[in-house]
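pasting for ref
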Amino acid sequence: MKFSTTALEGVWLIEPLRHHDERGYFCETFRSDLFEAATGIKPSFVQENESLSGRNVVRGLHYQAGSAAQAKLVRVSEGAIVDVAVDLRVGSPTYGRHICVELSADNGRQLYIPRGFAHGFAVISDFARFQYKTDNYYCPQAERTLRPDDETVAVRWPVARECMILSPKDMAGCSWLECEKF
């Protein structure tokens, strides 16, 4: 596996090594020992989730507040997305900044997003199957949403605002000024 730092402190891009032959390929998508050796983080994932979304669906920007905050290891097993992480950690050198990374079944990339980030994605293929591990259980009372179209954060989504398919919850999310920071 190849581990690379990103423009956001604590966010890692992970590229599993695929072994190809006439049958297809095989790869390890996660190994705790390699993850810890490369990042210095000892992961303890407790929950795994999956979503299936169609083209132009934008999910997020989601996070959990307080002691329910979650680190995530995200990947796409079918299709393609543009994944977004926004740093909400007050005092972080990358506070308020965000990154956009294309994750797809073809490129096999994964993104590790530590606690203290809002996270979301936009589907850029006909559909995408998105999978992620978390290091803390989902807590509905702690769930928060930063509006994906917030002007202060200014994410350059690959989907025009008028074409975005958003849930009512995501459309009603808070602005950057209103959202809880860590």
